[in-house]
Protein: CheY-like chemotaxis protein
Organism: Mycoplana azooxidifex
Amino acid sequence: MTSATVALLVEDEALIRMMVEDVLLGEKIESVSVGRGDAAIQKLQENAARFHVIITDIRMPGTIDGWGVGRAAREHSPDAVVIYITGDSASEWAANGVPNSILLEKPFTDGQLVKAIRSLVR
């Protein structure tokens, strides 16, 4: 991965958001973090080409969940990698996940996240 890799992180839980930000920093990936799906959609609409990786929780407050963020990512940035993170929605991934995506179940380790990123980002 190059220093030009930028991730959009969508997570409403502050501790998880900080943990993922630390992992991304360790991988030299710049991150832009938001806590709601609608804020993620706004970032994608403003400049989708900026984001190479979308890491999104599935269950969040508001009307747009992580599945919606993944679909919007595909619409605005078809080549972006999507990594879903969830504590309870893994069974829905086959029906709702977008192509070129991975799902990590909470709790996941830093190593699992790094492996997921490295397997999809080239």
In short: The beta strands are 6-10, 30-34, 53-57, 81-86, 101-105. The longest strand covers residues 81-86.
